[in-house]
Amino acid sequence: MDALRAAGERGDADAIAELLAPEVVFHSPLTSRLTFEGRDEVVALHRDIFAVLEDVRTSEPLESGDTYAFSFHARVRGVELEAMNLARCDDQGRIVELTVFIRPLPSLATLFATLPPRVSARRRGPVVGGLVACLAAPLAFAFRTADRLAPRFL
């Protein structure tokens, strides 16, 4: 896990590729309806992730059998993000499953407005990427606004 943490802090998708099993599955923090499957797709996704995240800082990992977890902090469009990576490895130590959990909601919404348009443009073309950006931007704005106002009413 130290190699994964170091690659994440450097934003090095090629180094992550060396840690992944060919059949790796990445579970999106944005929706349960989408997984990224296979080393090439997961590496391409990490290139997109590293293009939008800034100042990635990781914590010491936790380990239980073939499963590892570590948290990280980063910024997306200047919004602080906290996340937890959960990785399951095969007998050879390669990552076969990677799940990411993100909080708080405004940072998740900002990531939703930033990352899917980039991924959609790469996978489906710039028109679809633009459409996804138009759909996601109001959501990020709404959640950032609610985050600022909600504490006054609770």
From TrEMBL:
Gene3D superfamilies: 3.10.450.50. The chain crosses the membrane at residues 127-146. InterPro entries: NTF2-like_dom_sf (IPR032710), SnoaL-like (IPR037401). Pfam families: SnoaL_2 (PF12680). Residues 6-97 form the SnoaL-like domain. It comes from the Bacteria. Keywords: Membrane, Transmembrane, Transmembrane helix. The keyword Ion transport does not apply. This is SnoaL-like domain-containing protein. It comes from Kribbella shirazensis.
